[in-house]
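Quick one: structure tokens for this chain, please?
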Amino acid sequence: MSFIAAALALAFPALVIVGAVRDTVSYTIPNWVSLALVGLFPLAALAVQLPAPTLGLHLLVGVAALVTGMVMFALRWVGGGDAKLFAAAALWLGWHDPLSFIGVTGVAGGALTLLLLSLRSMYLRPYALGGPGWLVRLAEPGAAVPYGVAIAAGALAAFPATPFAAALDTLR
């Protein structure tokens, strides 16, 4: 059972990284990434024997994050894929370390924005134009910010505080 718990726990960082990479190269986070996170969560919770009250708290945090993401999407602050990834990650992270998740997501989002502003400047943009198509899109002035990258950074920073990360100790 411990190997299964560890394998399920590894799905979380793998999927948020996939979401970040896909957002970077295409400005979209496929629905299957968020759906896989939501679908694997009950299996992972069962595998690590998450207590019922803790499970309920994870569900509550996930729903609160979904509502928050929907509001941010309605205000056009984030894309729909970002809102879904944020909620799916929050479901896994629960209330174990919300300040890391929210704080690192915000700081990473700010750093990413500054990086993209630099990339889109008249000084660096000419260099990006010779790169692959995804880099050219990122260098386009006025283009969106692939916020899935910041969400993944926040999720990965908060993950070690979860009971799912503790399941990875069984691999040692």
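The radius of gyration is 17 Å.
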